[in-house]
Automatic annotation (TrEMBL):
Keywords: Hydrolase, Membrane, Transmembrane, Transmembrane helix. PROSITE patterns: GLYCOSYL_HYDROL_F25_2. InterPro entries: GH (IPR017853), Glyco_hydro_25 (IPR002053). GO terms for biological process: carbohydrate catabolic process; cell wall macromolecule catabolic process; peptidoglycan catabolic process. Signal peptide: none annotated. PANTHER family: LYSOZYME. Belongs to the glycosyl hydrolase 25 family. This is Glycoside hydrolase. It comes from the Bacteria. GO terms for molecular function: lysozyme activity. The chain crosses the membrane at residues 31-50.
């Protein structure tokens, strides 16, 4: 009897251990299944984001934002993908120049795509010096789309001028590049920049706002152009491009 009782006691811990191993195995299988579903969902979201553009019936005129990170762009493929126009990164601050700017502008026009230049505005540099950089590198053309002033914070620039100073400097910059280009420019403030400086309230220009997948509503008045997806992948460009639409019923800026 003593031997049988001891054997029974020895079997109980073994059964408990086996039960715990079974429970653990079932939980691991469930966790693995959940992780697999999450990975599949993330992959599907990335695939969808790389291809989504707003509906053509609502926004018939659409185009791309391109810079040097997109490599040697095949503009025929960009046009075939549905781009009616292209805004190309041109200058940055007082000395920056996108190394692919001239090539992109020429090749895009040859492919039958309307083009415009973007200047990335710096809070750390004088407006007149930035305008000189833009004027030096962006030629005046009657068929060019209006220039765009990209307004965003930059980790390279810690300066945060007062709103009054920013608006004054920005007005100077716009007056100089517009005299050169012969047409009014667009302003493109990012959400954080606009929240702090309320540029669209202080500068009377057509606005280009940015928000992925959902219409932006952070400007003082309705947007004329919307960068709707900054994650689009096209066969004619490396990496991702920005995809933009004009407000329904509009014409190229």
């Amino acid at each position: 009897m003593a031997t049988g009782a001891a054997s029974s006691r020895n079997r109980k811990p073994a059964r408990i251990a086996a039960d715990w191993r079974g429970v653990l195995a079932r939980w691991l299988r469930r966790i693995g299944g959940v992780l697999l579903l999450l990975i599949l969902a993330a992959g599907l979201a990335i695939w969808w984001a790389a291809r989504w553009t707003p509906p053509r019936e609502q926004y018939p005129i659409q185009g791309v934002t391109i810079d040097a990170a997109n490599g040697a762009v095949h503009w025929g493929s960009i046009k075939a993908a549905g781009a009616d126009f292209a805004y190309v990164m041109a200058t940055d601050g007082t000395a920056g120049l996108d190394p692919m700017f001239a090539r992109n502008m020429t090749a895009a026009r040859e492919a039958g795509i309307q083009t415009g230049a973007i200047h990335r505005y710096s809070l750390c540099q004088l407006a007149t010096d930035q305008a000189a950089n833009f004027i030096r590198h962006v030629p005046r053309r009657a068929d060019a789309l209006p220039a765009v002033v990209w307004l965003d914070y930059d980790d390279r620039c810690p300066d945060r001028p007062t709103r009054a100073l920013l608006l004054s400097e920005l007005a100077t910059f716009l007056a100089q590049i517009e005299a050169h280009m012969g047409k009014r420019s667009l302003i493109a403030p990012g959400p954080a920049f606009e929240a702090d400086y309320k540029v669209t309230q202080g500068i009377a220009r057509t606005t280009w706002l940015r928000r992925d997948f959902f219409e932006p509503d952070y400007g003082a008045h309705p947007w004329a152009m919307w960068q709707a997806n900054n994650y689009v992948r096209l066969s004619g460009a490396d990496g991702t491009v920005g995809w933009n639409v004009l407000r329904g019923g509009g014409e190229a800026p």
